[in-house]
Design brief:
By secondary structure, the chain is an alpha/beta fold. The chain is built from 6 helices and 5 strands, in the order βαβααβαβαβα. It has one domain: Rossmann fold. The model has no long low-confidence stretch (mean pLDDT about 90).
């Protein structure tokens, strides 16, 4: 039997845009043919603690939208308290993918994987240029600018 790799991706996914979709597609590709993609959507509390303000969309709305995306096999809500090790033990991924702007998370996961001697590959997906918005904060700024011009 062929082992189907499990790829884990994480994020806030507030105001979904093409950059999110490309991130998830590229993450799933990291697992090769037949890979399964599980996405951990950050809780509202986690977003507020990490970014200083809550997300525009609720965690339940963000989870529902991410769950419906074509590359996603399963989406789950993150733990109430940030717990990377708990998530790794619970989901048992072969690969963890982080976004281009998640350097802090990448460092923490790489350290956990090494300290725990886990056989998990950590991949940072590069930023996508060109087509459409690549960050929710950039999209929010554009929306605010457009509203101010009206």
């Amino acid at each position: 039997m062929v082992h189907r790799r499990l790829v884990l991706a994480t994020g806030v996914f507030d105001i979904l845009h093409p950059g999110h979709l490309r991130f998830l597609e590229e993450s799933k590709k990291q697992g090769g043919p037949g890979a399964r993609l599980v996405v951990v959507v950050a809780t509202d509390k986690t977003v507020k603690s990490r970014k200083g303000q809550g997300p525009t969309m609720s965690e339940s709305d963000r989870l529902e939208i991410v769950s419906s995306l074509k590359p996603v096999n399963r989406a789950v809500l993150g733990h109430k308290k940030i717990d990377f090790l708990g998530v790794l033990h619970e989901l048992k991924p072969d690969i963890v993918c982080v976004g281009y702007d998640q350097n802090d998370i990448k460092r923490r996961v790489v350290k956990l994987v090494a300290d725990q001697k886990l056989s998990i590959r950590v991949v940072q997906i590069q930023k996508f240029g060109g087509r459409g918005p690549t960050s929710s904060s950039g999209l929010k700024k554009r929306i605010a600018k457009n509203l101010a011009e009206d």
